[in-house]
Amino acid sequence: MATLLKTATLALMLALVSGCARYAATDYDSSAGFDRYSTYQFAKRGGEDAVQGLDAARIERALEKALAGDGFTRADSDPDVLVRYRIEDEVRTESRGPSVGFGFGFGRSPFTFGMAHSPVQTREIREGQLVVEMVDPTIEQIVWEGRARRNLSESQDREDRTRLIDRVIEAMFEQYPPQP
Question: The whole model's pTM is what?
Fold first, then answer.
């Protein structure tokens, strides 16, 4: 009994620790020298994105915290990397069915048999994917990229949205700097 309890506790702790990491994936340029990157600046936005929204401010605060934790400092000019982010909308299709059911039972006659089926059901689900990129301005190339997919909903309050964004970005930067 004690062994079963220890095993269950360990499994639960592993699930909690790795819970955020499964939502984040990173990629990087293996030829980039990540040890020489120590300063950053957020890339300038233009067009419709020129005015910063509330979630964009939350993303930038979470990125500042994650980058500081990895030894980066914010630069006013000539940064080692430019950090840019965006939310990409994705639409995925989920389908269910067809399904068929059989049943036996009792009715007017001593024994009855029935069959039912349902048609294929499909629905489109909109999801957002947060993409964070580090760009080396000297070579004008992306050297590191993080992607995470979690659902922000309109019904979430301010604190829940902030916590979710913090967890997603923290999960991305758990894998920084990349270990070849």
Answer: 0.68
